[in-house]
Design goal:
- The protein contains 4 helices and 4 strands.
- With about 150 residues, it is an alpha+beta fold.
- The chain has one domain: Nuclear Transport Factor 2, Chain: A, CATH 3.10.450.
- Helix 2 runs antiparallel to helix 3 and helix 3 runs antiparallel to helix 4.
- The chain starts with a helix and ends with a strand.
- The relative contact order is 0.16.
């Protein structure tokens, strides 16, 4: 009879521990939010002229990898003296974030942009799909696509 109670107690402990692990928010929410934020700041500083191309590219190489890095560097190279909107403020909210068994982080983020152009200031809100890659030393953003 005591074995039945012990087994029931063990099953309950396992159920509660499993529920706690599932309900726990991802450890990578803050890290991915920080990477997206740093990427936005680096690109904005390049486009408003306060940072040169080489410095911006070097900073992006610390934050990004893969196709996203190539796309951002190509866009910076193609950029010429135009009236691009300046990001005055932004707010990032991670909607979902999950780590796969292959060392990839996937999720969705909502970004609210406050943009200033030559004529006006406006606010825009978009939902993005992001992926990150976990290396031995750090995590890098590999994809950020508007949904």
């Amino acid at each position: 009879m005591k074995k039945v109670y012990a087994i029931n107690a063990c099953v309950l402990v396992i159920i509660f521990l499993t529920a706690g692990i599932i309900a726990r928010p991802s450890d990578y929410n803050g890290e991915m939010k920080n990477l997206i934020s740093q990427r936005t700041e680096v690109l904005n500083e390049f486009y408003d002229g306060s940072r040169d191309f080489d410095t911006s590219r070097d900073k992006l190489e610390l934050l990004e990898s893969g196709r996203l890095l190539k796309t951002d560097v190509a866009a910076m190279k193609a950029y010429q003296s135009t009236d691009i909107d300046q990001v005055v403020n932004y707010k990032i909210k991670i909607k979902s974030c999950k780590k796969t068994s292959y060392g990839i982080i996937k999720g969705k983020a909502e970004i609210r942009w406050v943009m200033r152009s030559v004529n006006d200031t406006r606010e825009e809100k978009y939902l993005y799909y992001f992926t990150g890659e976990i290396n031995q030393k750090n995590t890098k953003l590999t994809q950020l696509k508007k949904i």
